User: What shape does this take?
Amino acid sequence: MRHLLLFRHIDEVVKSGSIRKAAEVLAITPSALNRQILAVEEELGVQIFERLPRGVRLSTAGELLVHHIRNQVSDFVRLQSQIADLSGVRRGHVSIACSQALLPYFLPKQIERYRGDHPGVTFSVAVRDREAAEQSLVDYSSDVALIFEPVRLADCQTLLTIRQPIHAVLAADHPLANKEQLGLEDIIAFPLALPSLPYGVRSLLDAAASRKNIQLQAAIQSDSFEFLRHVVHHGHTITFQIEIGLPMPDEVDLGVVRRPLRGRDVPPGRLHLTQLKGRSLPVAAARFADQLQSTFAQHFECI
Assistant: This one.
């Protein structure tokens, strides 16, 4: 499949933005890689890259070619998965883009459950914010994405959406720990550890506060939910997370409790399981997406 190798070389140049950098990744010489590109341009009769002082940029024709390349590579990977299935050996690779909330509890269990039945399947998981997760589907670097409060979804096909209430996370000895639910008026009396602005949890909190003419002041701000969760062990600081990013009610998170925010103050957000619109997923990725849909339907409120 020599043409697929050439396709991957061209795609690497696109990702690297430079023939020299792509050649380093591919372990070939820049001159050899440039000759491959020139041969393709000669065959097409048009430049696919604009040569810039510090790299290269896709031409309009090049954008069309790269879209074709990524479709071809994806189709070939899907074919490999289907052929493996014929022999009864489920192999393949599943690439996932997701928010941080899926990392500590939900995804590890789901991946190990799937690999228990299909140990030949490998996984890669990339933490991406809302826009980057959608873009990873478009550029085929991810098969599926789990996106909380997506920005656009114009190029995505939503497989399932679940409702995700926001919870306050606080120390077990916090003055508010004995309440079953918390409102915005409760939490603003204490220091808040807030996620950074690009994240869906922060956008929902800010929108809710704006509706009530309340300003949320971040005593601590971070793009790491793991860091924010550990902050609450020390003092009266409160942080926030969606339901799927927290231990199950029967699991112990020593010294920390979770309390849902009242829905009339902060309405639940939406977590979308998505793939690229019009793409046929490889077998392993499609089966894993089916497993996620089944799990969501069993344990969460679907929309």
